[in-house]
Every structure is written in structure tokens, then in C-alpha cells.
Amino acid sequence: MGDIKNFLYVWCGKKKMTPNYEIRAAGNKNRQKFLCEVRVEGFNYIGMGNSTNKKDAQSNAARDFVNYLIRAGEVKAADVPSVGPSMSEFGTSANKGEGGGFGNLPSGGPIPPHLVVKAEKGRILAFSKICVF
């Protein structure tokens, strides 16, 4: 079950709920974007996502809602399918705060884009310290 939308749907099904997606187009026809909101009854949170296509906008909204569920303690981060770079790819420990400065992020999940850039800069910096130019 690698798809985040499927994960959210299955989780909601176990709780006898259904995620409700609302999609609307924004921008002109040449550079159209789709904005998506996902709501689940009983939760006072709206998952938001956008993309140049509807499917990705829905996935982004589902990912946002699942991240909320993790923060709220409703779901364990280890149970969520990850997409994108993970902490293990950067050789850092999420909970120990070693070198990477990732704070207290759940392990095994994707890391935020700004931290990916930070980790890549750290790798380049470490490489430049080893190889004197």
C-alpha cells in the first residue's frame, strides 16, 4: 500500500469515516493549477495540496492530512508509506539530533524539502573538507 491516498482511505475505513476531497482549478488555462482540500468528519483540520494535475493535488492533500494525524498522535509515523528522500539516505538519525540538525522528526518518513537541501549542502561541505581544492 504505497499510495498515501489509499493509506488515508484505509485508515478512515477502519474508523467508519470517509475522506472528502474538494478540488478547484486556479490560474489561466495555459498554467492551470489545482487546489485540493481533504476533510475527515470528526477532525478540525483541512489537508491542503496543490499541483499541476488533480491526482497529485489529491495526494499532496492526503499527505498533509496524514502528517496532521501523525502530529496529533492518531497514526504512527512508521505505519505511513513514505515518498521522497528519507532520513536513512542521508546517514543521519532523526531522533538523536546528530550532525544533521533534523530535530525531532519521526524516523522512516520523508524529510521536508528545506532539510533535504540542508543535508545536501552538508554533504558538499564535508566533501570539500576532505578534498582540498
TrEMBL record:
Keywords: RNA-binding
GO MF term (any one): double-stranded RNA binding
A Pfam family the protein falls into: dsrm
Top-level taxon of the source organism: Eukaryota
InterPro entries in the cross-refs: DHX9_DSRM_1, dsRBD_dom
Record's keyword annotation contains RNA-binding: yes
SUPFAM superfamilies: dsRNA-binding domain-like
SMART domains associated with the record: DSRM
Domain DRBM: 3-71
Protein name: DRBM domain-containing protein
Annotated organism of origin: Scleropages formosus (Asian bonytongue)
